[in-house]
Specification:
- This protein is an alpha+beta fold.
- The protein has eight helices and nine strands.
- It has helices at about 5-25, 60-65, 80-90, 145-155, 160, 175-180, 185-205, 220-225; strands at about 50, 80, 110-120, 120, 125-130, 135-145, 165-170, 210, 230-240.
Length: about 250
């Protein structure tokens, strides 16, 4: 047998051994081949995993700034779970291993909390959800469509009731004032502004629309969301697809 035949035989034996080994491998050690994103360890039961955010879009920052508008009229078209995930990531998403987020925070103390009142979102049952930035998932707070209740608490402003979903920005000021004292209250308000502008730019970049709403009954919104006394609602931001020609 010449050297070439020996080499071919050895290669054949090696391939056969690899195939045999792969056939005996534990399948639970293999990565998933499709389906939903697996929940990380410690995820609460019933949590809604959000699709991974997109980090490279087709619209530049400059274009998003130019196109940013306050949109109050929305088409009767549902949002997707990917839309919701992208918007929430823009508001408070974690951007590196140190836990830093998309919006700056005094002392990196992150007093903001983000909620979604979902009414017409594909892949998401109507209800109120609490965003968990560290794991990029939603925890359901209450079930059922609460958009009409939230609209009533917002002095009957129709965008809140008409939009498929409304993002609610709240804050726990103690996280910041413990370090910065009374001055920390100003930092908290600044941070809400940072997060809301991130949402504005993200929806502009993805063909959606929103408006910031600050006129609402604090206690009414707090009751709807089930907030504790130390947590304060700061902004409502209804989100939907703009009616053509309405901007």
């Amino acid at each position: 047998m010449d050297r070439r035949c020996i080499q071919v035989s050895l290669i054949t034996i090696a391939i056969s051994a690899l195939l045999l080994a792969s056939g005996c491998a534990d399948t639970h050690l293999l990565p998933p081949t499709g389906g939903n994103t697996p929940a990380p360890p410690g995820t609460p039961e019933g949590a809604v995993m959000l699709p991974e955010p997109v980090f490279e879009g087709n619209v530049s920052v400059e274009e998003a700034l130019r196109e940013r508008r306050s949109v109050r009229t929305y088409a009767e078209v549902p949002l997707t779970l990917a839309d919701i995930g992208q918007i929430l990531w823009a508001a408070q998403g974690v951007t590196d291993d140190r836990g830093y987020r998309t919006a700056p925070s005094a002392g990196a103390l992150y007093p903001l909390e983000i909620y979604v009142t979902a009414g017409d979102v594909m892949g998401l049952a109507p209800g109120i959800y609490h965003y968990q930035p560290e794991k990029h998932l939603l925890i359901q707070v209450t079930s059922g469509d609460r958009r009409a209740d939230l609209q009533a608490a917002a002095i009957n402003q129709t965008p809140v009731g008409d939009a498929p979903a409304t993002v609610v920005i709240t804050a726990i000021p103690d996280r910041t004032t413990t370090k910065y004292g009374e001055r920390g209250l100003r930092y908290v308000d600044m941070e809400a502004g940072h997060a809301s502008e991130n949402i504005y730019l993200q929806v502009a970049a993805t063909g959606l629309g929103t408006v910031t709403i600050g006129a609402f009954d604090d206690d009414g919104v707090r009751e709807i969301l089930g907030l504790p006394e130390n947590e304060t609602p700061l902004y409502l931001m209804p989100v939907g697809r703009p009616v053509p020609g309405s901007i």
